[in-house]
């Protein structure tokens, strides 16, 4: 029984099985600059969005590039990987189609950029199922705050109480809960260190979207 009208999905680590791809990119990026991947780097930048993550990276590691140049490098490195290698998390395609067939409005709320994630969604046959897209470019704060989920709900025209947020990151789960959203956490191995905190913060934790059908 579906008792919500709007589903708001994070992408990386929630719908898209892409966090290993990002780790590959991070390792390659730092290796090209003569550095090892800093411990905890991926977790730190994941809620930020490209622009904020690039600023953080340039300032923290004293890079010679500008944040804009770093974003351009990341775009180039990630485009082919996302288009050709990224697949869906377990049961994601089936569940998203199930919601669509039952009249649920489907939204994306992501830290990624549209020219990157759309090829991945298209390659996996679900791009045309989503009704609205919201990225961190459209809000003031990152995914540790409710801004992006509130913006997504506003675009879709629904109250918080009519929506469900799907997230994998602890910061995302906490941000959605701070916005009073019912929140479902999708397990991702890259969030394993936070799994007990995620269990406490989220309303529900799943390992496969088919659990909800």
Question: Please, could you describe this protein's structure?
Answer:
With 213 residues, the protein is α/β, with parallel strands linked by helices. The chain has two domains: 6-18 and 86-212, 3-Layer(aba) Sandwich (Rossmann fold), CATH 3.40.50.1000; 19-84. The chain has nine helices and eight strands. The protein has a six-stranded parallel beta sheet with strand order 5-4-1-6-7-8. It has a two-stranded antiparallel sheet with strand order 2-3. Helix 9 (195-201) links the parallel strand 7 and strand 8. Helix 1 crosses helix 4 and helix 4 (67-84) runs parallel beside helix 6 (114-123). The protein is globular, with a radius of gyration of 17 Å. The chain starts with 5 loop residues before the first strand and ends in a 7-residue tail after the last strand. The relative contact order is 0.18. The model has no long low-confidence stretch (mean pLDDT 94).
Question: Which helices and strands, and how do they pair?
Answer:
Blueprint: E1 6-9, E2 16-17, H1 19-31, H2 41-45, H3 50-60, H4 67-84, E3 87-88, H5 92-101, E4 105-110, H6 114-123, E5 132-135, H7 147-156, E6 163-167, H8 170-178, E7 182-186, H9 195-201, E8 204-206
Parallel strand pairs: 1-4, 1-6, 4-5, 6-7, 7-8
Antiparallel strand pairs: 2-3
Helix pairs in contact: 1-4, 3-4, 4-6, 8-9
């Amino acid at each position: 029984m579906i008792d919500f009208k709007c589903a708001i999905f994070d992408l990386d680590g929630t719908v898209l099985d892409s966090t290993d791809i990002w780790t590959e990119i991070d390792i390659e990026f730092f290796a090209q600059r003569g550095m090892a991947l800093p411990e905890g780097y991926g977790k730190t930048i994941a809620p930020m969005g490209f622009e904020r993550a690039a600023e953080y990276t340039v300032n923290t590691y004293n890079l010679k590039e500008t944040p804009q140049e770093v974003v351009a490098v990341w775009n180039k490195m990630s485009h082919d990987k996302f288009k050709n290698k990224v697949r869906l998390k377990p049961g994601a395609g089936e569940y998203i189609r199930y919601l669509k067939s039952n009249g649920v409005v489907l939204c994306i709320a992501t830290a990624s950029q549209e020219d990157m994630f759309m090829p991945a969604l298209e390659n996996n046959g679900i791009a045309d199922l989503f009704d609205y897209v919201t990225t961190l470019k459209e809000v003031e704060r990152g995914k540790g705050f409710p801004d992006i989920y509130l913006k997504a709900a506003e675009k879709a025209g629904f109250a918080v109480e009519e929506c469900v947020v799907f997230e994998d990151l602890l910061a995302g789960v906490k941000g959605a809960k701070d916005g009073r959203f019912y929140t479902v956490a999708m397990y991702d191995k890259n969030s394993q260190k936070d799994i007990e905190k995620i269990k406490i913060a989220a309303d529900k934790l799943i390992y496969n979207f088919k659990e909800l059908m």
